[in-house]
Amino acid sequence: MAPETRVAVGRLETLQIYKVLQCVHDLNKDQIEKLTTLGVPDLINLTEPRNGYGALHQAAEVNNVDMCKFLLSLGAQPDVQDFKGCTPAMKAAELGHDLVLEVLAKAHASMTIVNKEGKGILFYCISPTKRHLRCFQIALDGGADVNNKTKGGIPVFLAACEQARECKEMCLTLLERGAKAYAYNPKTSRTALMEAAREGALDVVRSILKKGGNVNAFDKQRYHAVHFAAKGGFFEILMVLSAYKADMGIIAMDGNTALHHAASGGFADCCKFLGQRGCNPIWKNIKTMTPKDVAKEGGFKAAKKELGKAMRRYKKYSKPGVKNPNPQWSITLHDWSCEHQLYLRESFAMLSKGDGTVTKEDFVSILKAKRAPVSEEELNSIIHLHEIGRRDNINTEEFLKGCKYLQKAFLLSAYAPKKKERKKGKEKIGKEKKGKSTLPMPICMMPNHLISHREDSGLPNFMIDDSGWYVDKLERVYTHINFGTKARDIESLKRAFAEGVPVDVKDIFYKTPLISACAHGNMDTVKFLLEKGAHVNVSDNFMWTPLHHACHGGQKDIAELLLNHGAKIDAVALGGSTPLMRAVERGSLDCAHLLIKSGAKLEIANKKGENVLDLAKAYADCTLIDMIQEKLDSLSKPKKKWWSKGRGKMEGK
User: Fold this and answer.
1) What is the CA radius of gyration of the chain?
2) Residue pair 291/260 in contact by the 8 Å Cβ criterion
3) Regarding beta strands 6-7 and 46-47, do their DSSP bridges make them parallel or antiparallel, or are they unpaired?
4) Residues of the chain with pLDDT under 70
5) Fewer Cβ within 10 Å of end Cβ, the chain: N or C?
6) CATH architecture classification, 1-145
7) Per residue in 302-328, pLDDT tens?
8) What is d(CA 199, CA 205) in angstroms, rounded to the nearest whole number?
9) What is the DSSP letter of 40?
10) Which CATH number among 3.30.70.100, 3.40.50.300, 1.10.238.10, 2.40.440.10 corresponds to the domain 328-415?
């Protein structure tokens, strides 16, 4: 709670506080010290009677770090408030004076005080400059409330999303720190998601939806996030909203659908997408205009053409008895699978049978684990279309492409720009702006996963003529550390570890370089990583250890090396499977023999109740089944008695 602020009363106090403020402005430290020593009591913390400004407000406003330190040393209270409830810290944050705010924070200035409107310091930090971002971080580190609301009920996260395009990092940080994703303005019902969609901030929209933001909320004018995205022509945001089951056809109070807004801007791709995703192309707004009429009025021929196609398709399939070959649920599933393809590809790769397929059961479990937007009946129809001729196996790449259950025009790949064929002999090298490298740009990934992949080759800079033919210096190119592991690039790994990258650094799927090396059978890399101290029992997001991955890949030598370095032989993964089970599923006789010989338990059952023998019968050949059966039989034999019950003496040792 903020300390009580004392306003100057009477002629003497008023004159003296104004004198102090003048001295702060003139940087007259000697006079300030003299006044505070000989003047009225606690003069340093008095505020002037017009606006409630104190000496520290004055110093913070003019960004004078040295003066702030001096005033604090004289006993200035860092949480003094003016008549609007604004503290010196708020004043510094509003103006982006990060160094002053840092000084105040070290003096224990409160970051939780709110002004007369209920706004905390984070409201003052919202601005698209680096200095304001620095102030934002200082305030958060000082305990500022990420869910602070004004007296009118407006959350700070919503205020940040109103500038989401330029304040993207602030929005994402607020979400990470616990800001409520469903934040909204109670007066207009406008949500943070709508504001982010209006701003075209794709990463913010995606993060809000991942954190549980309501994709189908609408404001008091019945405007939806889809309306705002369409109005700005933000095609990628429309794709993300569709993937999260947004109502693409909602009609606002003025009669406009998202198609009307896309048409008014001439955004042909948005018009095509919305027409396919359930937005009514023949609906008329309060001006009795269809989206096509709006596009025609604006002179947008491409948009008008796409809307004409959408109208013909809509009329055709709205007739009784005419079956739509692209039902809405299948379109939503395709958009969802594209949005979550990184997760799906990784999951499918883990359970792959080596030929790009997974079993029907694994396919269903992965989709259900990620909460795919399909019912049981719809999922069965998808399985039926993909397992034809494959004996209960699903080709995962075909599913991700969507070509088995959607027509080509409805696939997201149909929206990709067409590649133009280049004529031989016509191509120029380095057709770039002067000073720009003609080499590939660095691959942008998370900083702690980056390794330097290629450095300066020593090629000279030279220019032949003004036609654009030149060679520039090679730039440093970065790649994901697990890609380097896969490529057996030990030199780059050495450089990465020398530069401070941890040997057990994890990617977004919790895979370490050791896990990646084991999965791809890179024996030399595995040895190198173990010598560097890599954790042999680390696990990924499915709780697979390096030994699971080595056995799944049939890498007997790597599995033996891991066991020699202390790998847990019976480590249990998320589904209850052990490394031995993975070796059996892979049909790797060498790995299975090694694990059984090393003492792997055969009695362990996975979450489906299957033990190693059950899996062997389902996946393996007769040799492996016989080996496991023989081992189980030897375990089930009764132990030999060493003593006679009657005599209590040892028998036949």
Assistant:
1) 34
2) yes
3) parallel
4) 1-3, 388-390, 418-480, 482-484, 486-487, 619-621, 636-653
5) C
6) Alpha Horseshoe (1.25)
7) 999 999 999 999 999 988 888 899 999
8) 10
9) S
10) 1.10.238.10
